[in-house]
Amino acid sequence: MIQVALVGAGTMGSYHARVVASSGRASLARVIDGYEPVGRGVAERYGSAWQPSLGDLDGIDAVIVAASTEAHYDLAKQVLEAGVPLLVEKPVVNDFEKTNEIIALSASAGVPVLCGLLERFNPAVIMARQLVADPIHITATRHSPYAPRIKTGVAWDLLIHDVDLAIGLFGAEPCSTSGALGHFHPQSAAGAEDVASATMTFAGGQVAQLSASRIGQKKERTMTVHELDRLIEIDLLRRDVTLYRHVFADAVEIDGRGYRQQTTIEIPEITNAREPLAAQFDHFVDLVEGSADADAERRSILPPHAAIATLIDPAH
Predict the structure, then answer these.
(1) 278 lies in a domain?
(2) Are residues 98 and 85 in the same domain?
């Protein structure tokens, strides 16, 4: 059973703590957080030890970094230089060059790294990947009410998920990424965008149009995959998939003042509705134990980070 250290005991860190503690493949050995009431509270809840800083990693087989994005770079370097496998929340770093440095360090040290692009493990996404055959156009909406605790902009915080999913569904890196950023909320940090819209084009002519916002009035997570003769709709919150196929359309009346459409609808049953965070952790353990391909995992991390970096700075 692998011994895991968790860095960061905030909202996301507490979720990781629960998953690790309930796993039959790992033990939560340490909870590391500079704020003692929070860190010690999570540690005691799951029978773990608390410490205020990372320190040495003797006796630790893997580390999960769920600290603030601003701390990722230094923590990731320290963990990988110690030769310990790393699961780091997304983004690895909100800077492409530094992310590239972390991935290169992982490769040179021969130490696995996994980025917390959690939607990859959403049961609806897993089902959609089995159904999608020849996608040509992807649209996505990822909107949320405002969360003051998130200091980075929505491109790195939210949009990166759908960029990653689109790249995976098309099976290729984008040829171009363009879009627009909007800054609106008075509580947002300087330069941290509240709205991000991206258009990505691919070598085969495919297009992805993706929207992220943190000034919405409801939480929405949807993705639509268009094929020539079929539409696959993914609800990432409800974790279900619906397939539509157009059959017929015509005017309802002879003077054309109405519209009638016939569409077939199919709702496949999703039999593996496992919690994405638990599925992601299992994959991380596979990487630690060597049964999953660490090189392939590393290669999958850079393309979405590169696309977000280009959106934020087209000169990138």
Answers:
(1) no
(2) yes
Residue 216's domain comprises 120-273
Q: Are residues 30 and 110 in the same domain?
A: yes
Spatial distance between the Cα atoms of 52 and 85, rounded to a whole number of angstroms: 21
The Cα–Cα gap between 47 and 30 comes to 9
Report residue 122 CA to chain centroid gap: 10
Q: Do 128 and 250 share a domain, yes or no? A: yes
Largest CA distance in the chain: 79
The confidence score (pLDDT) of residue 273 equals: 84
Confirm if 192 and 185 have CB atoms less than 8 A apart: no
CATH number for position 58: 3.40.50.720
Predicted pLDDT of residue 260: 77
Boundary residue ending a domain (116, 147, 179): 116
Judge whether 279 lies within some domain.
no
Q: pTM for the complete prediction? A: 0.95
> What does the pLDDT look like over 214-231, one tens digit per residue?
999 999 999 999 999 999
* Sheet with 49-51, side-by-side order of all strands: 49-51, 26-32, 2-7, 62-65, 86-89, 113-116
Specify the pLDDT at position 234. Answer: 98
Structural domain contains residue 152: yes
Residue ranges, the chain, pLDDT below 70:
249-256, 316
